[in-house]
Amino acid sequence: MADGLKRVGLVFKSEGEVDFKKTLQEINVEMNKNYNQFKLTQAQWDNSTKSTEKLRTEQEYLKNAYEIQADKVSTLKMQLSDLENAENKNTTAIKKKRNELTSAEIKLETYNKKIKEIENQLHNTGKKIEEFGKKIENAGGKIERAGKKTSAFSIATLTALTASAKGAIDFEDAFAGVEKTVDATDEELKELKQEIRDMAKEIPSTTTEISAVAEAAGQLGIKTEDIMSFTRVMIDLGNSTNLSAEEAASALAKFANITKMNAKDYSKLGSVIVDLGNNFATTEADIVSMSTRLAATGELTGLTEAQIMALATAMSSVGIEAEAGGSAMSKLLKKIQVACETGSSDLSDFASVAGMTASDFKKAFEKDAVKALSAFIAGLNDTKRNGKSAISILDDMDIKEIRLSNTILSLANASEVMNNAVDTANKAWEDNTALTNEANKRYETLKSKLTVALNKIQDIGITLGNKLMPSIEKVLDKVGQWADKFDKLNEEQIDMIVNIGLVIAAVAPLLSTLGKMTTGIGQVVSMYGKFQQGLGNLIEKANASGSAMTGLLKTIQGMTGPVRTCLFSNRCRDNSNSSCIKQCK
């Protein structure tokens, strides 16, 4: 069976049985390694990193993630099969394992879709324009002396124009996702569009990146009026923690839905996460992961959002994994709550360990569940008062499940961590400054300031591109028509068209459109293009578009030379004149 797993082999117990728990742990470790390597590579990217390089890096990460997730699916299937074939079937465990398998399969398919999307992007980037450019460039060899009139509109200017339009086109494409997910009026969408551009001029994130988070916010059900404040918090978290902005958006929106948190408190929640990540032996990603698993039970037992984050911090700080620890702590909280509500003998046990009467412990739990829980955890280590060890106490209380008892004992060995985490989280919630301060530190770096400056320059390109896009759309429509016509011609027909100069008539509309560009616009575009070149290609993919358009320009340049003389000479007005054709050759 181990040979069926691509990346991680099965772990076996000493008696020869498969240890599914350790196997899945190994898989999770491998998944984290793959993710951390990807994030490390991302951190090394700068403005000179090509978009295709980024796509191929993401493609490699996704392929690795797919293989590891496939191992997880295979392992869960084997584990489910063992449960279903057991003599004493545990229906609850089977149902849970099926749900776990379904979730794993959904995630596997998600990786698969993302891989295909990356492959399509790599395959299709600029393909159509480049193919047409090459076709026209080949024909251009036969009329290389033609067209001095186009020299006034230089290649550099055309490339800059294309780059300017590219910025506007990219933003328009990114914002289309926002329009798709956000239920807003045209006026509200117009305001969102401008706010995204304004935000890019304040922080080191591009309009495309900000639009992606705003799109995710719409998908997650964030109200239109809260989209930009939510997006800013997630972007700040992405820039100042080990969470990406989109990961933070997805996790925290779900967390807020479960806890019924007010949308105005996202900034406070972000501050809590940052402050806890800065002051305890864990990461922001681990805190958020654990918190989402504690959210439902925490909300039912009256824990605040800050307390849930604090409890998650304490658990992840002592090495408790999110999946195991989340379910174990949920069980403990539910067990205490049931004891308090029913007044069963378990209540006396919890109260005794905490050093309280049953009545006092019940009141304490109802008033502040975390403090009551902390008193119980701390009491486990008071062997002098209890007269026995923590392990013996849990055994007497019939808390014998390995995952649950290990979680409790881990916390008991570091009981002060929980109290400190709660105090830190509550203060961070009230101050609501930790996220802003952390983000500002990152934004004050030279790299961040340069990115903001480039964003401002790109915003100029977007403004200019918005003005130019209607004209360029007309040009591209004409290009498409030419391409279709050329596809239907054979070599003999192409030779004839070139020789008698009909190509001039075909491209005349394009020349007319370019010729009508105002001198003022031409100067601004040229200056903008030169500044972009000096900064090292600010707008991604402009090179691809520029090279393709250069191919087209080579054909257009010089179309008013010998061929025009031939067409308009007294002798050659009749294009059927064979001697004229021969002369023109």
Report on this structure.
This protein is mostly helical. The chain has 3 domains: 124 residues, no CATH class; 177 residues, no CATH class; 211 residues, no CATH class. The protein is built from 28 helices and no strands. α7 crosses α8, α9 runs parallel beside α11 and α11 crosses α12. The C terminus is likely disordered.
What does this entry show, briefly?
This protein has 585 residues and is mainly α. The protein contains 28 helices and no strands.
Helix coverage percent of residues? over 70%
The overall strand count is: 0
Uncertain segments: 142-156, 505-585
Q: Write down the secondary-structure element order.
A: HHHHHHHHHHHHHHHHHHHHHHHHHHHH
- In percent, how much strand structure appears in the residues? under 5%
The pLDDT mean sits at 76
Radius of gyration: 33 Å
The rough form would be described as globular
Number of helices: 28
